[in-house]
Structures are given as C-alpha cells and as structure tokens.
Design goal:
Layout lengths: L2 E8 L2 E8 L3 H22 L4 H45 L2
Antiparallel strand pairs: 1-2
Amino acid sequence: MGEISIKINIADRVYPLKINMEEEEVIRKATKLINDRIKEYQDVYAVRDKQDLLSMCALHYATAAINAEKNVVKENEHLADGLFKLDQLLTDFFSK
C-alpha cells in the first residue's frame, strides 16, 4: 500500500508523519494510549510539565516492553522444553 500523510497530536504538540496506510490505525491507537497515559499522570501526580509527563509515559511503556519481552523469552523456553520432551517421547516410541 502507499504512503499517506497524517498529523498526530501528542501532549499538545502536532507531529506530521508520512506512514504506510496499513500503519495508520496502530499509530492513532498508540497516540491515544500515550495521551490517555499523560492525562492519567497529570491527574494523579498533579504534574503539569509536559516533559516530565512524557518521560513518565516513556518509562511506563519501556518497562511494559521489557516485561513483555521477558514473558516471550520464558514462553519460548517453555515451548522449546515441551518440544524437546515430545521429541524424546517420539524417538523412544519409534525406536522400540
């Protein structure tokens, strides 16, 4: 698909972007998540400085990404272990 130009607003700043059409929904959803998180931090912590709010938001999403990555690694290890055990069972079965 082709490129399109969109404008997104994060923390009261407008950013023009050129993106692939199929990315638009994800980018708009991410923009909404960021702005919602900023609003939440603004309400809970009474912080008004946008830079501080953006930093807190970046920390939140970076932490979430790291935790998700750890979970994927654990799941992959569990899956690999299960596949190894299954392979052993099949090898034992067919070698009889």
